[in-house]
Amino acid sequence: MTDCIFCKIIKGEINASLIYEDEEVIAFNDIRPIAPVHFLIVPKQHVVSLAECSPSEQRLLGKILLLAPQLASELGLKGFRTMINTGREGGQEVFHLHVHVFGGGEALPKT
Ligand code: 5GP
Ligand code: ZN
Prior knowledge:
Blueprint: H1 5-10, E1 18-21, E2 25-29, E3 37-43, H2 58-74, E4 81-83, E5 99-103
Antiparallel strand pairs: 1-2, 2-3, 3-5, 4-5
The structure holds guanosine-5'-monophosphate and zinc ion (ZN).
C-alpha cells in the first residue's frame, strides 16, 4: 500500500518514535497521544482492520495482544487500556490494523 502512512513508517520512509520492532510487528508512539504513554502496535503486513482478519491472522493477533502488557510494563505502566478502532464508524482513521495501548498518570475514566 503506497499511500498507507503506517506502511511508510514500517518502510522507514516516515519517522516515528519506535519502541519495538521484529520481523512481523512494529510499535511506535502515537503522534497525538491521549495519555502520558500512548503507543500503537502494528503488524508489518498491511491488514486493513480487525474486520478483515481471518483465521490465518490468529497467531499474529495473539502475538500483538501479548506484546501490549510486555511493552506497557517496559514503559513503566502499572495498568493500561487497549483499543482497536475498526471501520470508519468505529472511529478508525488509519486503515492499517493497529492496537492502541495507553495509560500513565491518573486512573483512566470508564469510557
Ligand atoms: P485510529 O483512529 O485509526 O484508531 O488511530 C490512528 C492513530 O494513528 C491516531 O491516534 C493518530 O494520532 C495516529 N497517527 C496518525 N498518523 C500518524 C503518524 O504519522 N505517526 C504516528 N506516530 N502516529 C500517527
Ligand atoms: Zn499499511
